[in-house]
């Protein structure tokens, strides 16, 4: 059963109404001799200019006196901006210096943010911890979104003294985007976090319920006669890789070991100061962490987050989200970069006496990306990628002949996104187009779309000082291909055109194209302590995004009414508190209301720096159009959900988080629960160890098994369901040893044990999916109807002694162990060396038994792991 559990808190935690505070102005000073960046602030250059200060407490107690004084100074020349910050501290031995990975800063830290476009919507943040670890990011949409993939080339050093700690920065102008005006005005904000007090201080006062972040920043004056500078960086790389695994005797392509070497080139070229062209030829992502293990018994594809650097850099620019909330339907997007370079989707099996081999992933020949924002407020993002033609090799052992069959055709992916800011960022008009074109032949034309095009127009309007919003996104899609290819798309569970009770769709096996439309809407009050919003998303039955985007289901209208209340002022034991209510309704394009629900959520942050949350949802009886996977809709009982968690003070050496969730349907059809614990231990400031064990169990009497057909020769579907007891035990183990800000050792491992055992006496077929009573919607097979042999259940439905249909035993036991060990050394800014060891262990059986000891024994003693040892070296040439 598809779950619609949606908890929508404040989407824009900073975008709320508040008092208008006077804008501060800081005037930068031009210098002729730059300071040496060493964190000591003793160069004569720092004797010039004025120190800024008088910081304002943002949290936990807004406008309360700051506990420690902070001062800063900004200098500049024709090439760089120079920043000095003095973070005074009356107890310097209490300054927390934690060595971490870049962009994962911890401890005492500060951020310098520049709105160099001065569009009052975008800011570049340059942060550093007291330990000297960089944490850079871009704020977009007036602070609504943060993009931590921004990794510019800049320089910073810190030092701890008897008066506190200092940060000294040099930010090359090539890393900032600004106009060619003779006299510049930029937005400016300086933020300091005093870790032990959980205190955040701002230079420019911004109320916690202020309407946005960037447009409320202070002003930076004094920048004159600086010219935009373009970037030109070339980074060639080389990779040497050794793989060992359990080979297949006689298979020339899978003999137990492989040795490979490859090379490629990454480049960043400034077309203009505001537009960056990123190129990647023959990219390699061997240092990227593996995806976590999972068991997915639904008909819907799991969403995995992007981890490859080329695609995550600036991903906010090419995002066109069509979902609501988190997870599931919340991930719908016109662009899902994991489609590029994924595992080959067309499989070819070897016959007896043959050996087959298919590459694990589709190689990317080359990729180009143009991103940026003009001085006039025009944001652009274009991506062009070509993936190679992948073939499965099949060798006949007797004849010695090798056959090549296409697993993935040569494919071109293109994405284009533009947005124009108007009226000081209060009006935004944009659009997006994507294109997927494949080079098909007779072998592949019935399995892939020849072309897929999607596009949309979006409009956002803010009212009343950005306290109210109206946002509309529209989308269309068109896919073309052979009759067989388009028929496959129509029949898929995503579209369900052949659902027999759907009078508003028409399955046409002669089609050679399919079109659809969709969109989403957000409108209401986002300002103040109260928020009132209506959110909706709709997708017509013919909408198809999955060639280059992500979409779980079509034929859907989902609407959510949101009421939120936030308490920002500390009281009693609380620092802050949040209450939320959501009213949910789900419809199909036939106008049928499939589900209605209500959810409540509450969260709190305490003065002892702990936090907790709890949420609950009650759904009505559901008419599920998808559960029978191409069959008619079925009525499922009402259900409820409850979940919660508590977090201890993460600033302590040992911290913990405990979470739980429970889903349960009425009439005792399905019960599932999940328990998880996260422990994090920092024995020293350079080492972090975390463990996240998780246990889940699902008992479902209505688990879809398969669709069978009577052996009469006429397709007569039988929708087979069973009662499953599914258990999953996993643990994510992570160790981060940060020797210096530029030299780190990272380990991630995940043992994963799962099983699914079906009851032999509780297999059933659907008879009347919309009967008044649940018991009338199915028939449970009797012992006289069922026989079992060699892993197959055989059904004699009419008891005439003849087998009418059969299905395989769906029991399963799965064990996996994945891990990555990565040593990373950034020996020069932008130049990096990686040493990587990754390992995969897998074990599978069909007994359905959960036995941790036996599964672990089989996993670690009875099979050979797949090991990958990789050395990658890249060197950046900054030519401008």
How does this structure look, described?
It is a single chain. The chain is mainly beta and 880 residues long. β38 (687-709) and β39 form a beta hairpin. The chain is globular and about 100 Å long. The two termini are 57 Å apart. Residues 1-19 have low confidence and may be disordered.
Note the main attributes of this structure:
24-stranded antiparallel barrel; single chain; globular; mainly beta; 880 residues; 9-stranded mixed sheet; 51% strand
Strand content: over 45%
Largest sheet at a glance? 24 strands, antiparallel, barrel
Gross geometry: globular
Stretches where pLDDT is under 50 for at least 5 consecutive residues are 1-19
Q: N-to-C terminal Cα separation, in Å?
A: 57 Å
Helix content: under 10%
Total strands: 49
Q: What average pLDDT do the residues reach?
A: 90
**Radius of gyration, whole Å:** 29 Å
The structural class is: mainly beta
The DSSP helix count reads: 3
Question: Topology of this protein?
Answer:
Blueprint: E1 25-27, E2 29-30, E3 56-59, E4 70-76, E5 80-88, E6 109-115, E7 123-129, E8 134-140, E9 145-147, E10 155-161, E11 164-172, E12 183-194, E13 199-202, E14 218-224, E15 232-244, E16 257-270, E17 275-281, H1 309-312, E18 354-357, E19 364-373, E20 378-387, E21 390-396, E22 402-408, E23 411-422, E24 427-438, E25 451-463, E26 468-480, H2 483-491, E27 513-525, E28 530-539, E29 556-567, E30 574-587, E31 593-606, E32 611-619, E33 622-624, E34 634-636, E35 639-647, E36 654-665, E37 670-684, E38 687-709, E39 717-740, E40 743-758, E41 764-766, E42 778-780, E43 786-789, E44 792-795, E45 805-808, E46 812-828, E47 831-845, H3 852-861, E48 866-874, E49 877-878
């Amino acid at each position: 059963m598809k779950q619609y559990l949606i908890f929508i808190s404040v989407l824009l935690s900073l975008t709320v109404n508040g008092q208008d505070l006077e804008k501060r102005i800081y005037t930068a000073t031009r210098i002729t001799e730059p300071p040496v960046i060493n964190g000591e602030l003793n160069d004569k250059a720092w004797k010039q200019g004025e120190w800024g200060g008088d910081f304002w407490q943002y949290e936990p107690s807004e406008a309360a006196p700051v506990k420690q004084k902070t001062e800063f100074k900004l200098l500049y020349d024709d090439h760089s901006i120079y920043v000095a910050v003095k973070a005074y501290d009356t107890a310097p031995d209490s300054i927390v210096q934690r060595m971490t990975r870049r962009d994962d800063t911890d401890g005492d830290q500060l951020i310098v943010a520049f709105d160099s476009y001065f569009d009052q919507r975008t800011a570049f943040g340059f942060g550093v911890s007291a330990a000297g670890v960089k944490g850079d990011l871009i704020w977009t949409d007036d602070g609504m979104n943060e993009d931590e993939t921004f990794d510019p080339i800049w320089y910073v050093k810190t030092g701890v003294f008897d008066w506190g700690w200092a940060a000294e920065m040099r930010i090359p102008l090539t890393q900032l985007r600004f106009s060619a005006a003779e006299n510049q005005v930029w937005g400016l904000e300086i933020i300091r976090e005093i870790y032990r007090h959980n205190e955040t201080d701002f230079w420019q006062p911004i109320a916690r319920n202020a309407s946005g972040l960037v447009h409320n920043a202070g002003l930076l004056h004094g920048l004159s006669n600086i010219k935009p500078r373009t970037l030109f960086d070339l980074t060639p790389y080389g990779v040497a890789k050794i793989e060992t695994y359990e080979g297949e005797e006689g298979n020339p392509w899978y003999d137990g070991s492989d040795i490979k070497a490859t090379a490629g080139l990454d480049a960043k070229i400034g077309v203009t100061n505001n537009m960056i062209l990123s190129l990647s030829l023959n990219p390699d992502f061997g240092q990227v962490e593996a995806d976590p293990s999972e068991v997915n018994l639904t008909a819907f594809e799991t969403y995995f987050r992007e981890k490859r650097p080329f695609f995550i850099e600036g991903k906010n620019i090419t995002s066109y989200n069509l979902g609501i909330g988190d997870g599931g339907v919340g991930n719908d997007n016109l662009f899902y970069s994991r489609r590029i370079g994924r595992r080959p989707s067309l499989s070819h099996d070897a016959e007896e006496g043959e050996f087959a081999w298919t590459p694990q992933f589709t190689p990317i020949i080359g990729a180009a990306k143009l991103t940026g924002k003009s001085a006039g407020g025009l944001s652009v993002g274009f991506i062009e990628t070509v993936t190679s033609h992948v073939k499965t090799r099949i060798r006949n052992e007797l004849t010695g002949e090798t056959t090549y069959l296409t697993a993935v055709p040569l494919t071109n992916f293109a994405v284009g996104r533009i947005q124009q800011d108007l009226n000081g960022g209060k009006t935004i008009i944009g659009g997006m187009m994507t294109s997927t074109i494949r080079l098909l032949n007779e072998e592949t034309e019935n399995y892939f779309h020849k072309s897929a095009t999607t596009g949309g127009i979006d409009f956002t309007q803010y009212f009343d000082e950005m306290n109210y919003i109206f946002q509309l996104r529209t989308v269309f899609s068109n896919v073309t291909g052979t009759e067989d290819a388009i028929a496959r798309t129509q029949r898929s569970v995503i579209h369900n055109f052949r659902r027999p009770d759907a009078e508003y769709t028409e399955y046409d096996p002669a089609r050679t194209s399919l079109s659809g439309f969709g969109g989403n809407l957000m409108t209401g009050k986002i300002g103040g302590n109260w928020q009132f919003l209506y959110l909706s998303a709709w997708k017509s039955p013919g909408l198809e995004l999955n060639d280059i985007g992500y979409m779980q289901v079509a034929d859907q209208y989902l609407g959510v009414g949101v009421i939120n209340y936030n308490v920002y002022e500390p009281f009693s034991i609380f620092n802050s508190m949040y209450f939320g209510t959501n009213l949910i309704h789900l419809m199909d394009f036939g106008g049928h209301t499939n589900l209605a629900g209500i959810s409540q959520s509450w969260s709190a942050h305490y003065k002892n720096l702990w936090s907790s949350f709890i949420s609950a949802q009650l759904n009505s009886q559901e008419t599920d159009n998808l559960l029978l996977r191409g069959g008619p809709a079925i009525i499922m009982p009402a259900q409820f959900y409850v979940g919660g968690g508590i977090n201890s003070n993460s600033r302590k050496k040992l911290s913990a988080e405990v979470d739980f969730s429970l889903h349960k349907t009425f009439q005792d059809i399905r019960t599932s629960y999940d328990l998880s614990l996260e422990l994090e231990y920092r024995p020293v400031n350079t080492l972090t160890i975390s463990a996240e064990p998780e246990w889940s169990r699902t008992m479902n009497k209505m688990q879809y098994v398969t669709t069978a057909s009577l052996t009469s020769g006429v397709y007569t579907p039988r929708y087979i369901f069973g009662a499953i007891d599914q258990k999953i035990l996993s643990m994510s183990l992570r160790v981060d040893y940060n020797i210096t800000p530029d030299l780190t050792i990272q380990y991630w491992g995940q043992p994963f044990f799962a099983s699914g055992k079906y009851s032999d006496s509780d297999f059933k077929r659907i008879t009347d999916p919309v009967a008044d009573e649940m018991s009338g919607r199915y028939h449970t097979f009797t012992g006289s109807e069922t026989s079992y042999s060699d892993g197959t259940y055989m059904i004699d439905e009419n008891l005439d002694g003849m087998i009418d249909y059969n299905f395989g035993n769906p029991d399963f036991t799965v064990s996996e162990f994945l891990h990555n060990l990565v040593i990373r050394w950034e020996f020069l800014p932008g130049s990096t060396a990686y040493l990587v060891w990754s390992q995969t262990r897998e074990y599978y059986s069909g007994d359905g038994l959960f036995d941790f000891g036996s599964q672990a024994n089989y996993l670690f003693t009875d099979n050979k792991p797949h090991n990958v040892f990789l050395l990658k070296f890249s060197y950046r040439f900054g030519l401008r």
